[in-house]
């Protein structure tokens, strides 16, 4: 009860700290030669370390800028909380009410890129620990807050950590949804490449884990394409010699929640007769489906649901072309079956398979002690059903054994991760912090 009251009494400062944190535009920038992922991500990493050091943690900053961590408590066993300071780009700023990196409090909501993924949860963990320290809660295990820098891309920060540092015995990542997630689908990301050249340029998609909200066309047939888009009822606009298809961003794990601008462009371009093996593949084998039915048939399991396939990048023109695919694989389905299926299908269209990344699935039985603890805490704090859930998301839980995702999104909240106007209710922000305080206290007993 005392920790809960401490958090409620400090909500104004907690909110201010999150607004300051959102104001650091920590989007990857590999053109910055001084730091691996750019100055802004490095600044965000140092900001977090400074915050934890100020309340009594021992901190470590990787001199190369790949990761950092903060330690508290004593004991043989270590609880790990895995977080990340990088965020996806803000996208089209005009789609935001207040701007992605302003950090705005309005109508009882906190708006800004990262408020859900993963800056808000980091501040929640920070204030959970402030409350526990203020209440002098004893720690019989060590706690390590691990801070990654490249979670939204290739996980190079956490991989560097795993090669060099001690691994926690168990833990959670506050980077998904409540209640506790006992299963996460496997994540396969690939590129399909073509040497076939076209006399038009089509380009869309900026991140492999986001449904593209915009796709641009440059070349002849622009007004023929516009006529087809009108016929199909797809939002678009012309600016000078370029035509843009307008979609809606969403997280790749839930492609049905977005509007894929790349696929709308590809389908319309194919319909007006633009010839390309890439467009033929997309038209025949993807279309407006989400589950890869034309390549794999029905692919589903009882633990984690359907396979999902989303086309998140497209770049084609005089140089050839490339498609970026994001595939979320049910936990009991063999990755080899999916990869071989894509290769065989792509080969028929003259496309070359290039695997970018694979993250194995997460699966812990609901009888696992940590699952039971996190479920109990959630139910006590919310009076809601805490039955463990599965997800198609790719969280840092995959990086370590005995690690799961836990929050911050509550049931019924809009799924705005990676979308414009990403926000979190202040009341939910406070409740999330209270849950983390109780969870940490139980797990370090």
UniProtKB/TrEMBL annotation:
Its cofactor is Zn(2+). It comes from the Bacteria. It comes from Fusibacter tunisiensis. Belongs to the peptidase M20A family. The keyword Zinc applies. The keyword Hydrolase applies. Keywords: Dipeptidase, Hydrolase, Metal-binding, Metalloprotease, Protease, Zinc. The lineage of its organism: Bacteria, Bacillati, Bacillota, Clostridia, Eubacteriales. InterPro entries: Bact_exopeptidase_dim_dom, M20A_pepV-rel, Peptidase_M20, Peptidase_M20A. This is Dipeptidase.
């Amino acid at each position: 009860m005392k920790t809960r009251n401490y958090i409620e009494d400090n909500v104004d400062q907690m909110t201010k700290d999150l607004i300051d944190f959102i104001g650091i535009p920590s989007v990857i920038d590999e053109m910055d030669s001084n730091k691996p992922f750019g100055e802004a991500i490095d600044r965000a990493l140092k900001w977090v370390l400074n915050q934890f050091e100020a309340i009594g943690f021992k901190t470590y900053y990787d001199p190369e800028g790949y990761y950092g961590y903060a330690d508290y408590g004593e004991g043989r066993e270590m609880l790990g909380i895995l977080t990340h300071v990088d965020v996806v780009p803000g996208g089209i700023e005009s789609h935001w009410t207040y701007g992605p990196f302003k950090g705005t409090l309005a109508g009882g909501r906190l708006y800004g890129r990262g408020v859900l993924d993963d800056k808000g949860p980091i501040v929640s963990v920070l204030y959970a620990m402030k409350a526990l320290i203020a209440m002098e809660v004893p720690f019989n295990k060590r706690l390590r807050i691990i801070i990654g820098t490249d979670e939204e891309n290739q996980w190079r920060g956490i991989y560097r950590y795993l090669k060099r540092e001690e691994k926690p015995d168990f833990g959670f990542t506050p980077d998904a949804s409540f209640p506790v997630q006992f299963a996460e689908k496997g994540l396969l990301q690939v590129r399909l490449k073509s040497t076939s050249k076209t006399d038009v340029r089509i380009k869309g998609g900026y991140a492999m884990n986001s449904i593209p909200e915009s796709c641009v066309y440059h070349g002849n047939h622009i007004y023929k394409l516009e006529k087809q888009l009108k016929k199909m009822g797809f939002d678009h606009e012309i600016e000078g010699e370029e035509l843009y298809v307008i979609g809606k961003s969403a997280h790749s794990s839930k492609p049905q929640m977005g509007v894929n601008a790349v696929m709308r462009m590809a389908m319309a371009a194919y319909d007006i007769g633009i010839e390309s093996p890439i467009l033929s593949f997309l038209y025949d084998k993807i279309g407006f489906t989400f589950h890869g039915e034309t390549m794999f048939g029905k692919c589903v399991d009882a633990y984690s649901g359907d396979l999902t396939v989303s086309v998140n990048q497209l770049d084609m023109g005089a140089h050839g072309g490339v498609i970026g695919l994001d595939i979320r694989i049910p936990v009991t389905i063999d990755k080899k079956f999916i990869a071989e299926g894509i290769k065989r299908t792509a080969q028929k269209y003259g496309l070359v398979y290039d695997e970018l990344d694979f993250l194995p699935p997460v699966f812990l039985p609901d009888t696992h002690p940590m699952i039971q603890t996190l479920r109990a805490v959630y139910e006590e704090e919310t009076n809601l059903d805490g039955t463990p859930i599965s997800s198609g998301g790719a969280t840092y839980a995959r990086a370590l054994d005995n690690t799961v995702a836990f929050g911050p999104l509550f049931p019924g909240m809009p799924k705005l991760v990676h979308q414009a106007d990403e926000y979190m209710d202040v009341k939910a922000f406070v409740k999330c912090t209270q849950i983390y305080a109780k969870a940490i206290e139980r797990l370090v007993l």
